[in-house]
Write a structure and sequence with these properties.
By secondary structure, the chain is an alpha/beta fold. The chain has six helices and five strands, in the order H-H-E-H-E-E-H-E-H-E-H. The chain has helices spanning about 1-20, 25-30, 55-65, 115-125, 150-165, 180-190; strands at about 40-45, 70-75, 95-105, 130-140, 170.
């Protein structure tokens, strides 16, 4: 009996030590979002187009789940095509997540889109804080103009450009992408990755 009691206690202790909730999975991120995000600013900036109301709502909800409901969302005016400076970017000292929303209908160009990617990365790196970049590719504007093959090709072209900057693109369609799917992709695509944060 003594041996069984000792084994039982040992197994129970081991089970407690090895039990860990996957708090970075979408369900738990959404569940715990009300407790996170205080003092964090989320700036959503479309690039050279105006996203639909459904896209803005979908992204806003996902980002609050990801960062925390206590974060502040700022919807910025669309950045004009070719502009590579963002005056408001350096205006905050609080932790910030910049979300650049690109339109899949635009052809990605290294000398235009690549420059804005580079500028945002350089700005975030220079601030030595809890600052992040997220690249989002809105599929909605192109859905009626292209078939699946063209859509996939355009997404791959965008991702190739993002790869040049060590970034991931989060492709989404407000009506077709599940919230959990979008949340999971966004978490994986945040730059710099948590492993690189000091």
């Amino acid at each position: 009996r003594m041996t069984l009691a000792w084994l039982s206690t040992r197994f129970a202790r081991k089970a407690v030590q090895s039990f860990m909730l996957p708090l970075d999975e979408p369900y738990y991120l959404q569940l715990l979002s009300t407790e996170r995000g205080q003092g964090i600013q989320i700036d959503l900036m479309p690039y050279s187009y105006q996203p639909s109301a459904a896209a803005l709502d979908c992204l806003g909800q996902c980002l609050l789940d990801l960062i925390g409901n206590q974060a502040t969302l700022h919807w910025r005016d669309p950045l004009p095509y070719g502009q590579t400076s963002v005056p408001w970017l350096q205006a905050t000292s609080s932790p910030q997540t910049v979300v650049l929303i690109c339109n899949v209908a635009q052809t990605p160009e290294a000398e235009v889109h690549g420059e804005i990617f580079h500028m945002l990365q350089a700005s975030i790196e220079s601030r030595n804080g809890q600052h992040h970049l997220l690249l989002v590719l809105d599929l909605e504007p192109y859905q009626h103009l292209a078939d699946q093959t063209q859509m996939k090709g355009r997404q791959q072209t965008w991702q190739r450009l993002a790869n040049d900057h060590h970034l991931q693109i989060v492709a989404f369609h407000a009506k077709d992408t599940s919230r959990d799917q979008l949340l999971e992709k966004a978490q994986a695509a945040l730059w710099p990755p948590k492993s690189e944060m000091t």
